[in-house]
Amino acid sequence: MKNQQIFVTKSFMPAKEEFSKYIDGIFGSRNLTNQGELVRTLEARLAAYLGTPHLLSCGNGTLGLMMGLRLAGLSGKKVVTTPFTYVATLSAIMWEGCIPVFADIDPETLCLSPESFRKCLKLHPDIAGVVPVHVFGNACDVQSIEAICREYGIVCLYDAAHTFGASYQGRSLLAYGDYAVCSFHATKLFHAVEGGCLITHSEQDKHRATLLRAFGHLGDDHYSLGFNAKLSELHAAMGLAILPHISMLIEARRKACAYYDAHLPPGIYVRPKLREGLTYNYAYYPIILEDEKTLLSLMQCLAEAHIFPRRYFYPSLTTLPYLPDSARTTPCPVADSIAPRILCLPLSAEITEEELARITDAIRRCASTTNTRPRG
Fold it and tell me: Strand, helix or coil at 354?
């Protein structure tokens, strides 16, 4: 129906009976949280699927980042990150008392630039860690970034919120770095309504994280300072119901992206370049337009057709008023240029060919009236 609204995403829902079988067990056990059976089962199945044995679920991705920063001993220290990400990345860094330092992004992949990262280290020799972001599920230059980390003795914690189901050179993107964090928010490819996970690489770190997310408790014994970052049984139930569908969800999204590739008018946008060796999860479909004026015009055309894309990631975090001066010492012209003119088109596993045709037709109409041109 041409007046039906199309939003940037639609959360996948399993069949009610698939979810209900887990909920029935919860009603029988009355066990709602505190590392229940469903949470333990979900963690085991995720660890097997991702090939990351030291996996710990948590209440959301932001809490996972905060846990990783604290486990890595980065609280209160200088940490490099990208200004082209969702604000939660920066929020976790600042809530842990870290001092953010921005490095610019690669103009093709939109992930953190190793060259800009190195410039930050020359300006700030006391930098202790880096939080690169695998933007839109694309892979950072992990070899270069981790080589720099080894050279300078820096901890690498990947914000891998978008990477579920994506792999690089045969390994899950969540397997890279000293730590990695994924989000299970309802907008993600794999979700638990709310939730996330932290990946470590030792049983010792996993044990420390287990204490940290549960107020420092194991049973009745209290061992350390902590907070509440636990995943509930209800959220785990949703995750368990969705996990068996992941291959189907990725394939459906791949087909939708292929439709966009084939039917969007040529010459009006550029796309981020996927890193060679990446097995992509088709998490997003971003397009980069000529300028912000063109983007706003396109959004208006789409809104008139009841189509609502989203400006991921806008604004560049360099523009936020509460940043410390350190965050702005390295110029980030690429991020500042891309952020105002990038748009993510509607994409979900359940988007129909009719909906895709509506979107691409509306974009063609807008392009024909505005003489839209891309700029890299």
Answer: helix
Q: In what order do the strands lie in the sheet with 167-168?
A: 171-172, 167-168, 278-279
Q: What is the pLDDT of residue 1?
A: 62
CA distances 3 to 6, 7, 9, 306, 307, Å, are: 9, 12, 17, 6, 9
DSSP-assigned letter for residue 179: E
Residues 6+ apart with CB under 8 A from 34: 214, 230
Task: Name the DSSP letter for residue 118.
Answer: H
Residue 122 phi/psi, 5-degree rounding, is: -70, -35
On the 0-12 / 13-18 / 19+ scale of CB atoms within 10 A, 19 is middle
Cα(208)–Cα(215) distance, integer angstroms:
11
Of 15, 14, 10, residue with least CA distance to 351 = 10
191 Cβ contact partners less than 8 Å away, ≥ 6 residues apart: 11, 12, 184, 185, 238, 239, 242
What does the pLDDT read at residue 376? 54
Q: What number is the average pLDDT over the span 104-129?
A: 98
Query: Parallel, antiparallel, or unpaired: how do β-strands 221-222 and 179-183 relate?
Result: unpaired
* Ordered domains of the chain (ranges, CATH): 16-244 (3.40.640.10), 245-370 (3.90.1150.10)
Rg over CA atoms, the chain: 21
Statement: residue 31 has pLDDT above 90: yes
**Which amino acid, 215?**
F
In whole angstroms, give the CA distance from residue 168 to residue 352: 29
